[in-house]
Specification:
Length: 257
């Protein structure tokens, strides 16, 4: 195997247990297996890849959800592997820590950009290249959030490869100086690798904790509260957006650079 396409075409089913032709043109990405199980239960469709690093489920309309795992390296991997599919677009349903007082748990963040603090994306583009979503995709997602009468914010998020940083005041002070609205581990990578691979991409982030203060750090109890109260709405908006964009949204053009 000499080309990137040859490699990803072979590796996509190896990682997911799903042939490329069984993955839809519109894809929801998540890093929570619970999201995939809820999607599967809603559409009464089987989950594939339970014995693989990544799991998929595709409904009868051809919308696929993929659990790629946690972190920027896995985010880059799935955005490379999805090159094997003739995709129209990808929407990441992730969680993030809210860093502003106005951003409450249960709110959504539709990021206008992400700061590339994870390092993984440096293997794809120089650090000067911004990590941006596809505008027309985000425009349509915004419309679906408004139709659902849900609270959301727009702004910049910071993507880091550090999982345990909530105790580090110097790191938190840096986040404050950057004026970011949220912090996560995947968004900048998805935007950057999607740009590299000419994949239309977006992210709808659910604020799951407020880690800038000790009492706001995520715990098992607080995470269960978020799951019980907000995850279904998160999935609902993702499904509606990616199911309806092909018939109602503006056409997304792919430009090669």
């Amino acid at each position: 195997m000499k080309t990137k396409m040859e490699i990803v075409s072979n590796w996509l089913p190896r990682y997911t247990g799903t042939p490329a032709e069984e993955i839809g043109k519109w894809v929801l990405l998540t890093n929570f297996d619970d999201y995939v199980h809820r999607f599967a239960a809603r559409f009464k469709t089987p989950i594939k890849g339970l014995d693989r690093p990544m799991q998929t489920c595709t409904n009868s309309d051809g919308l696929t959800i993929v659990n790629f795992g946690i972190g920027s390296a896995n985010a880059a991997t799935i955005m490379d592997l999805l090159m094997a599919v003739d995709l129209e677009g990808v929407l990441f349903l992730g969680k993030c820590g809210g860093t502003k007082r106005s951003t409450e748990i249960g709110h959504f963040i539709l990021p206008m950009a992400a700061i590339r603090g994870e390092g993984t994306s440096d293997d794809y583009f120089p650090p000067e290249v911004p990590a941006l979503p596809s505008f027309k995709l985000h425009k349509f997602v915004s419309q679906k959030i408004q139709e659902a009468n849900m609270e959301y914010r727009t702004g910049v998020v910071y993507t880091t490869n550090r999982r345990v940083w909530e105790h580090d005041q110097e790191f938190k002070d840096r986040l404050g100086r950057m004026r970011v609205m949220g912090v996560d581990m995947e968004t900048a990578t998805i935007f950057t690798v999607g740009f590299m691979n000419n994949i239309a991409r977006g992210a709808l982030l659910l604020v799951s904790d407020k880690p800038m203060t000790p009492e706001g750090v995520k715990t098992e109890k607080s995470d269960r509260h978020v799951t019980d109260n907000y995850v279904d709405a998160h999935i609902d908006i993702g499904i509606k957006a990616m199911s309806e964009i092909s018939s109602q949204g503006e056409r997304i053009k792919h430009f090669h650079f």
